Amino acid sequence: MAERVEFAGAHGQRLVGLLDLPSSGAGTASAVVAHCFTCGKDSIAAARIARALTDRGFEVLRFDVTGLGESEGEFGAATFSMDVADLGAAATFLGEVRGRAPGLLIGHSLGGAAVLAAAARIPDVRAVVTIAAPSDPGHVTDLLGVDADDVDDDSVVRVRIAGRPFTLHKEFLEDIRSQPQSRRIAELGRALLVMHSPQDRTVSIDNATEIFRLARHPKSFVSLDGADHLLTRPADARWVADVVAAWSARYLGEG
Q1: For the chain, how many structural domains are there in total?
Q2: Strand pairing partners for 128?
Q3: Which domain holds residue 60?
Q4: pLDDT digits (tens, 9 = 90+) for 45-79
Q5: Is residue 88 part of a domain?
Q6: Distance in angstroms between the alpha carbons of the first and the last residue of the chain
């Protein structure tokens, strides 16, 4: 079952999420799922992974980042750093309403880069999972073919992502290009599971190789052979949830 929730983001904006709970109503472990770039809490991957994890005893919070879905704010004026801070706010909220702060962060695509960056802000996190994540958040600007240097300070750039129009501010482009991601990965200090498909045509599996290379043990690498970037096949999302539940139990000491 999923419960609609609202909480304040790191900058005071109203964020809307879904709290997926086991059928018993109480779980043995908790997690926060960060969705892919422009996707939202209801994305196929986030929803299927969250629901599958509840079948394995997890309480899972997934939420729309600033400016997407039901959450307040302007997406293009928000930044990657704001998304990272909002993950911290989400973790605090989950701890307050369920009495247990999340021990696990799961991020899909750019959400994977965000959980790598946010883990250090959340003391209770003991394990991190990235799915189809870029090793550098700035990879997004390469995909979009835009550069902050080409945008005037008071200008915006209009792009289409998955057929939908978005407006991005220069601050967004500058912020996402200035992230110290390599250092964060090297200093993560949590167990890490890197999951990526060799057939991913959006974010190359070379990114997963780089994340794994930079990270220190304990770390694991799982190939999502045959899956696409968005995990559109239900079987792929279920298998991801199975692996995450089994792997994380070793580090969470629960379930």
Answers
A1: 1
A2: 105, 192
A3: 2-136+181-252
A4: 999 999 999 999 999 999 999 888 899 988 777 89
A5: yes
A6: 19
